[in-house]
C-alpha cells in the first residue's frame, strides 16, 4: 500500500473529527522503518512513549502529559505494556490523530514477557502475561475500525465510519453544557464545585473560560505546571499557579487569600490534601476525570463527597477534542473496561447475601471479570488499569464476592504473602535486603522483633469494596468473616491489611477482629493518610507473631505519636510492657545492623538513664527529638549518613557501658544467627 493512501486516510479522519489506532506488529527495526516513512507525511507532534527509544517519554512519566494536547503519537510496547501510560497518552490526542501501537508479531503474543509486570507483580523479573495478551488480541483484531499492519502482510485500511453532520472543533466559545456550568459558577458565593468527565470533554477548557470571565481573584493548583496548558490557552489573563504543597503551606501560614481556587486534575492529589485546601477558600472548583486513568473512578467522587458535604458536581458528556463515537476511544474503553455502569446510589437494596470465592480464571468468564473490576472502580478509590493487569495475570491472588439477587455487590481481593526462607527474612530483619512484594509481612519484619512474619503463610487483604447503595448492611464484615473461616482451613497463619488511617477504618477493622500492629510516620501519597497495618492471627504461630508485633509496636508508638500527632483510640493502643530482652534486641539491631532508628527511641531513652551526660548526641536525637538538620548543625557533622553512623556507634558504646559481655554476645549472635528471636536468646 502506498504511504500516500495512509496520508489521505488520516486527512479524512481529521475532517470527521475521528482518531484511530494503527497496530504495527513485527520486529522493532521494521517498525522504525515504517514510522520514519509515516511521520513526514502525516504532520504532527508524534510524541513517543517508550522505555527503549532515545528522547522518548518513559512510561512512568506519562502523567506529565495530563492537561495537554497532541496530534499523533507512538506507544512502544515491544518490551513492556504500561496500560496507565497508554490511557493517559490516548486522552491527550486531538481529532485526526493516529496512535501507533508497536508490539511483537501477533503469533508470539502468548509468550510475550511484559517487563511492566514488575510494577504490579511480586515476582522478580518480567512475567509472561498470556491472559492480557489474549484479551488484547480479541479486542483489537475483533474491532473493524483498528488498522492492523503485520510485518508479513499488507496494511488494509478499514472503512471510516462517517457520522451524521459535519464536525468542527469549538473555536473558544463554550458549548451548551459548558455554558450552563459557567453561569452557575459565576453566581456562586460560597461552594465547592466539581466538574467530572472522561478525557477530551473540555473540563480544563471550562476552567480557563471561567478565569477569563470572572472579575475577582482566582488561584490555580495542579500536580504539575505543564498540566494546565489547556486551561491557560482559554484565557488571556495571567495564571496564578501554585503547587499543592506550596499552596497548602501558604494557607496554613495565612499568607494567601483568593475568591476562588481551581484545582485541575484533582484526582491526582490525596483526598486529605483536597479537603484541607477546600477549607481555606470561599469557592473551589475541582476538575477531574471519572474514568480510571489515574485511579479515579466514581469511587473517588463518592469518597470526596463523604469528606466535603457541600460538594456540588456537574458532568460533561460530549467530547470536544474529537467527535462522538471515536474509534480510538471505543477501543481503549473496551480494552481497559473504562466505561463504568451507572448506579442509582439513592436506591437502597435489600436481600440475602451470598459469599463465594472466585476462581480467578477471568479469561474464561468475561462477564464476571467485568462485574468484579467495575465494582472496584465504582466503589474503591485509586483503582487503575494496573489493577486490571494484576487481575488477569498476577500471581498469588485470591478473590471473594458478595452477591445479592445474583448481582455482585461486594468484593475482596487478597494477595498471598510470606512463606519465604528464614535466611531471606533474617536479612530483611537486619536491614540488608529489601525484596519486592510482601508489603505487610516485610514491614512487620523490618520494624518487629522477629522475622517470623515473612516465614509464616499470610493472606493480605489488598482491596475491599461494596457498592454504595448496599452499604450499612454488614456486607464487608460478612465477607471478612467468610475469609477468616476459609483461611483457617488452608494453613494460613494470619490475615493482614494495610490502609490509610482514619478513625472509622481503624474501628471497622477492630470490629472485624484485627489489631493494629504498625503505623507509618509518613503520609501516603495516594490517600494523604498515615499507612496503618493490622493483623488477625489464625494459628498458634500467628498468635505468637501478633504478640511480638504488639510488643514492637508498643516500643515505637510513643515516638510515632510524637511525629504524627496521631492519637489512637484507647481500644487501639498497644498495652504491652517491653521486656529487657526486647529492648536489648532492638538496640542491637540498630547498633550492629541496619535497622531503622524508629525501632529504638524508647530503648535508647531507657538505656540512657544515668548516662545522659556521656552521650549528648543520643540525648539530642532520641530524647529531645531534635531533627536530623538540627543534630547535624549542633554536632558539626557533614550530613545524614555521618549522623546515622555516629548514632549506631554510640548506641553500641552505650550498650557496652551497661553490660559489655552481653553486648558482645548480641553482636556475635546477630552476625551468625539465621533466625533472630528475643525469646530463644539469653
TrEMBL record:
Keywords: Acyltransferase, ATP-binding, Cytoplasm, Nucleotide-binding, RNA-binding, Transferase, tRNA processing, tRNA-binding. This is tRNA(Met) cytidine acetyltransferase TmcA. CDD domains: NAT_SF. The keyword tRNA-binding applies. It catalyses: cytidine(34) in elongator tRNA(Met) + acetyl-CoA + ATP + H2O = N(4)-acetylcytidine(34) in elongator tRNA(Met) + ADP + phosphate + CoA + H(+). One of its GO terms (molecular function) is acyltransferase activity. Residues 353-536 form the N-acetyltransferase domain. Catalyzes the formation of N(4)-acetylcytidine (ac(4)C) at the wobble position of tRNA(Met), by using acetyl-CoA as an acetyl donor and ATP (or GTP). It comes from Proteus cibi. Acetyl-CoA binds at residues 464-466. InterPro entries: Acyl_CoA_acyltransferase (IPR016181), GNAT_dom (IPR000182), P-loop_NTPase (IPR027417), TcmA/NAT10_helicase (IPR007807), TmcA/NAT10/Kre33 (IPR032672), TmcA/NAT10_N (IPR013562), TmcA_C_sf (IPR038321), TmcA_tRNA_bind (IPR033442).
Amino acid at each position: 500500500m502506498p504511504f500516500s493512501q495512509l496520508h489521505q486516510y488520516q486527512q479524512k479522519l481529521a475532517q470527521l473529527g475521528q482518531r484511530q489506532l494503527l497496530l504495527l506488529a513485527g520486529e522493532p527495526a521494521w517498525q522504525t522503518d515504517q514510522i520514519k516513512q509515516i511521520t513526514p507525511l502525516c504532520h504532527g507532534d508524534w510524541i513517543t512513549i517508550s522505555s527503549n527509544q532515545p528522547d522518548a517519554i518513559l512510561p512512568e512519566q506519562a502523567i506529565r502529559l495530563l492537561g495537554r494536547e497532541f496530534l499523533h503519537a507512538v506507544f512502544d510496547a515491544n518490551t513492556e505494556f504500561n496500560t496507565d501510560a497508554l490511557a493517559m497518552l490516548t486522552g491527550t490526542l486531538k481529532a485526526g490523530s493516529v496512535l501507533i501501537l508497536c508490539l511483537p508479531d501477533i503469533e508470539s503474543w502468548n509468550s510475550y514477557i511484559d517487563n511492566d509486570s514488575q510494577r504490579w507483580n511480586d515476582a522478580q523479573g518480567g512475567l509472561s502475561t498470556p491472559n492480557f495478551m489474549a484479551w488484547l488480541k480479541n479486542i483489537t483484531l475483533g474491532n473493524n475500525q483498528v488498522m492492523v499492519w503485520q510485518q508479513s502482510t499488507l496494511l488494509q485500511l478499514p472503512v471510516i465510519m462517517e457520522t451524521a453532520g459535519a464536525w468542527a472543533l469549538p473555536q473558544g466559545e463554550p458549548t451548551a453544557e459548558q455554558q450552563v456550568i459557567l453561569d452557575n459558577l459565576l453566581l456562586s458565593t460560597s461552594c465547592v464545585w466539581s466538574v467530572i468527565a472522561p478525557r477530551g470533554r473540555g473540563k480544563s477548557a471550562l476552567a480557563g473560560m471561567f478565569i477569563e470571565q470572572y472579575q475577582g481573584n482566582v488561584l490555580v493548583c495542579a500536580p504539575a505546571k505543564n498540566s494546565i496548558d489547556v486551561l491557560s490557552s482559554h484565557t488571556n489573563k495571567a495564571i496564578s499557579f501554585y503547587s499543592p504543597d506550596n499552596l497548602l503551606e501558604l494557607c496554613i501560614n495565612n499568607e494567601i487569600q483568593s475568591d476562588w481556587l481551581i484545582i485541575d486534575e484533582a484526582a491526582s492529589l490525596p483526598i486529605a490534601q483536597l479537603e484541607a485546601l477546600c477549607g481555606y477558600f470561599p469557592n473551589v472548583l475541582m476538575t477531574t476525570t471519572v474514568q480510571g486513568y489515574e485511579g479515579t473512578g466514581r469511587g473517588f467522587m463518592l469518597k470526596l463527597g463523604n469528606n466535603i458535604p457541600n460538594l456540588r458536581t456537574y458532568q460533561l458528556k460530549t467530547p470536544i477534542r474529537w467527535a462522538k463515537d471515536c474509534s480510538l476511544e471505543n477501543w481503549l474503553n473496551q480494552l481497559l473496561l473504562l466505561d463504568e455502569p451507572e448506579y442509582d446510589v439513592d436506591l437502597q437494596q435489600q436481600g440475602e447475601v451470598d459469599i463465594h470465592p472466585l476462581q480467578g480464571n477471568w479469561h474464561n468468564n468475561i462477564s464476571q471479570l467485568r462485574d468484579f473490576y467495575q465494582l472496584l472502580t465504582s466503589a474503591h478509590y485509586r483503582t487503575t488499569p494496573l489493577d486490571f493487569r494484576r487481575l488477569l495475570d498476577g500471581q498469588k491472588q485470591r478473590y471473594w464476592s458478595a452477591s445479592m439477587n445474583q448481582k455482585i455487590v461486594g468484593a475482596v481481593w487478597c494477595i498471598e504473602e510470606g512463606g519465604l526462607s528464614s535466611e531471606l527474612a533474617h536479612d530483611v530483619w537486619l536491614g540488608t535486603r529489601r525484596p519486592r512484594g510482601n508489603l505487610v509481612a516485610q514491614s512487620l519484619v523490618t520494624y518487629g522483633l522477629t522475622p517470623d512474619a515473612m516465614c509464616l503463610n499470610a493472606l493480605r487483604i489488598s482491596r475491599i469494596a461494596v457498592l454504595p447503595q448496599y452499604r450499612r448492611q454488614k456486607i464487608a464484615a460478612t465477607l471478612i468473616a467468610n475469609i477468616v473461616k476459609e483461611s483457617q482451613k488452608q494453613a494460613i497463619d494470619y490475615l493482614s491489611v494495610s490502609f490509610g488511617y482514619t478513625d472509622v477504618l481503624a474501628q471497622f477493622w477492630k470490629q472485624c477482629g484485627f489489631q493494629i500492629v504498625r503505623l507509618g510516620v509518613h503520609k501516603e501519597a495516594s490517600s494523604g493518610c498515615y499507612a496503618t497495618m493490622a493483623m488477625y492471627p489464625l494459628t498458634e504461630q500467628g498468635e505468637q507473631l501478633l504478640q511480638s508485633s504488639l510488643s514492637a509496636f508498643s516500643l515505637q508508638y510513643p515516638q510515632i505519636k510524637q511525629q504524627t500527632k496521631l492519637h489512637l483510640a484507647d481500644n487501639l493502643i498497644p498495652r504491652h510492657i517491653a521486656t529487657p530482652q526486647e529492648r536489648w534486641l532492638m538496640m542491637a539491631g540498630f547498633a550492629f545492623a541496619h535497622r531503622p532508628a524508629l525501632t529504638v527511641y524508647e530503648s535508647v531513652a531507657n538505656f540512657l538513664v544515668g548516662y545522659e551526660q556521656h552521650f549528648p548526641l543520643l540525648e539530642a536525637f532520641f530524647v529531645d527529638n531534635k531533627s536530623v538538620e538540627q543534630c547535624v548543625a549542633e554536632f558539626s557533622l557533614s550530613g545524614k549518613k555521618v549522623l546515622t553512623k555516629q548514632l549506631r556507634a554510640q548506641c553500641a558504646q552505650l550498650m557496652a557501658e551497661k553490660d559489655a559481655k552481653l553486648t558482645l554476645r548480641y553482636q556475635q549472635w546477630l552476625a551468625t544467627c539465621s533466625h533472630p528471636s528475643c525469646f530463644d536468646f539469653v
